[in-house]
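sorry to bug you again but im stuck and you know this stuff better than me. below you get a single protein, a line of residues and a line of whole numbers that encode the local backbone shape. mainly i need to know what kind of three dimensional shape the backbone takes. anything you notice is useful, everything is just below:

***
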Amino acid sequence: MSRIQTPATIEAAPAASRPMLEAVHKKLGVTPNLFRLVSNSPAALEGYLGLSAALEKGTLPAATRERIALAIAEVNGCDYCLSAHTFLGKNVAKLDDAEIAANRRGTSNDPKADVAVRFAAKVALARGHVDDADVQSLKSAGYDDAQTVEIVLHVALNTWTNYINEVGKTTIDFPVVTSRKAA
């Protein structure tokens, strides 16, 4: 059960959050519990949606963004995000089960994406304290400075969603996937 009240409907959310939740519903066809929980703070919801939208305009492929989300959810032991991103990985990014399993281990079966996912996992595990060689590995794989910044922001954004879901104990509204930390 959630530790932070999750408005049951868009209409039950704070008035300032309702237009943002309606936009989420229009885009996704549903309003996942994460968004409704965060809607308790219209400012937090606006910040989350704004950063998410900005990163969607970046140059990292959607599949790589999902791979990073899966790796970070596993690092942080967030079952809500693992469940959501496994669903999105399969149904939106078209990742297969072997790739999702690799991503959860902090790797990828795609050679270029592997470098990004490994880097993202290291950023999360080392709390940003990576080596010159880690950054150089990204550049050697063809990632530029802008993409390096985007990877770090994806780590930060996914860590935030992991943390809010763990603090709130958000009720999972996707097919449930359990992290290795929870097992």
